[in-house]
Every structure is written in C-alpha cells, then in structure tokens.
Amino acid sequence: MEDPEPRHVGGDATQADEPSETTAPGPQSNGVHNTDSESPEEESPQLPRQGSSALETDTAERLEVMARDRDSLRAEVTELRKSLEEIQSKHEEDVHDLQDKLEESQSSKGHAETQYRTLLGKVNTIRAQLGERLKADAVRTSRGGQ
User: Fold this and answer.
1) Which long-range contacts (C-beta less than 8 Å, at least 24 apart) are formed by 50-57?
2) Which of 12, 21, 121, 131 suits a disulfide with 45, CB 3.0-4.6 Å?
3) How far apart are CA 37 and CA 40, in angstroms?
C-alpha cells in the first residue's frame, strides 16, 4: 500500500514536512543511490521556502526580548547597587554613632567609678574619725566618772 504523500529520497529533512508540488507518489527507492535519475538540484540541501521570513522574524523578536531583558536587568542591578551603597552608608553612620555612644558611656562609667572611690574613701575617713572620737569620749567619761 502506498503512502498518500510522496516520499523524499535524499536532501534536507525539512523538505519532507513541506507539501509537495506534485500530487503523484514518487518512485520508491531500494536504498541505492542512483545518480542518473536524480538531478543535481535534488542533491543540494535547500532552505525551507515558506516560513524563512517567519523564522527570521521570530529570531529578531526573541533577540529584542533578550535585549530588553538585559537592559532591564542592568537597570535593576544599578538600582540594587545604589540601594546597597545607601544601606552601607547608613550602616557606617549607625556604627559610628554607636561607637561614639559607647565611648561616652565608658567615659561616664570611669568617671562614676572615680567618684565612687572618692566617696568611699571619704566615708572610711569619716568612720575612722568617728571611731577615734567615740574612743576618746569613752576614755573621758571613764576618767571623769572615777
């Protein structure tokens, strides 16, 4: 039984997908290449006649889409870099402010510790003086009462 479409022997595979201009089935081949019956035109691969402009248009459209995507990605990268620089700048300012506050706190702590030691020394001096006075008063009262 013969196929309703003609068979193509040799040439480009895209030709088999295209409708043939002849309606009669072509000769069947036994797989041996016979150069006497074939013309040189059939041996050379041919580009598809229909759809080549559509293929070029599709390729051009895809290229345009890729170029737009590339441009939008570049713009996004630029925005992200600016945002990163702003964040880094703010971070550096925050770190600097925190370091200043830390230094101020450490300085205040040192000052408070110095004041505490000074006051503790004064309290110990007053305690020692009161202790001596109490002893002296106790000695006086013991002498005076005798």
Assistant:
1) 50/18
2) 12
3) 10
Structure tokens at 65: 């889409």
Q: pLDDT digit string (tens) for 39-93?
A: 444 444 454 455 578 888 899 999 999 999 999 999 999 999 999 999 999 999 9
Q: What six digits make up the tokens of 124?
A: 């110990």
CA dist., res. 109 & res. 115, Å (int): 10
Tokens (6 digits) for 3: 């196929």
Report which residue type is found at 47: L
Q: Which residue has the tokens 């007053």?
A: 126
State pTM to two decimals. Answer: 0.44
d(CA 23, CA 84): 69
